[in-house]
Amino acid sequence: MRLDPRSPLVINTHELGRRPGSMRTRELTVSAPADLGIELIGVPEGSPLQLDFRLEAVMEGVLASGTARATLVGECARCLEPVEDDLDVTLQELYVYPESDAEEDEASRLHGEFLDLEPTVRDAVVLALPYRPVCSPDCQGLCLDCGVRLADNPGHQHDESVDPRWAALSTMTVNHAEPADPAAGRDEE
Fold first, then answer.
1. Is the pTM value of this prediction over 0.85?
2. Is 116 exposed, middle or buried (0-12, 13-18, 19+ CB in 10 A)?
3. Does 7 score more than 70 pLDDT?
């Protein structure tokens, strides 16, 4: 697989050489790639993604570490209101040299002198996203009966609902006859 050196998240490590201990720092602002999120929240495609990272040559390859910052956009899992938040995540990945004995699924690989930060950024961002984002910690959500947002109508309530399986019984009148007093008949004997 060849990497496109023009891609903003493909980084050239030529300056490091293969000298363990050599280090370079970089700051980049790139457009966020597509599908950087989950169902309810994510980083919009094309929005600014700020990267501040360090590349260090080590015996096995190049260690990339740093942070990624982005703005998240989505909707509240409880009331479906828009949610916007900032995300700051830590990145760290070892990119091994092509001739390394490391298994393909154990480590990322350098492609010549290039490494691709996109999978590392994607993993760090997506794993840090809230599974059920909320607009506020005390969001009460929506009314189960009519769908009104409970935060907008705090006193909202409905009459107690009747289970439809028992609704026919509520139309029946009940004859409440007084029970006979067994002791009343004994006095007559």
1. no
2. buried
3. yes
DSSP string, 156-185: ---PPP--TTTGGGGGS----PPPP-TTTT
* DSSP β-ladder status, 23-31 and 48-57: antiparallel
First to last CA, the chain: 109
Buried/exposed code over 142-171 (b: 16+ C-beta within 10 A; e: otherwise): beeeeeebbbeeeeeeeeeeeeeeeeeeee
Mean pLDDT lowest among 35-44, 46-55, 117-126, 166-175? 166-175
pLDDT tier at 168, thresholds 50, 70, 90: confident
Provide the phi-psi class of 174: left if phi over 0, else alpha when psi is between -120 and 50, else beta: beta
* Cα distances (angstroms) measured from residue 91 to each of 52, 111, 126, 166: 10, 20, 12, 58
From the list 100, 129, 131, 95, the residue with the least C-alpha distance to 113 is 95
Mean pLDDT of 102-126: 85
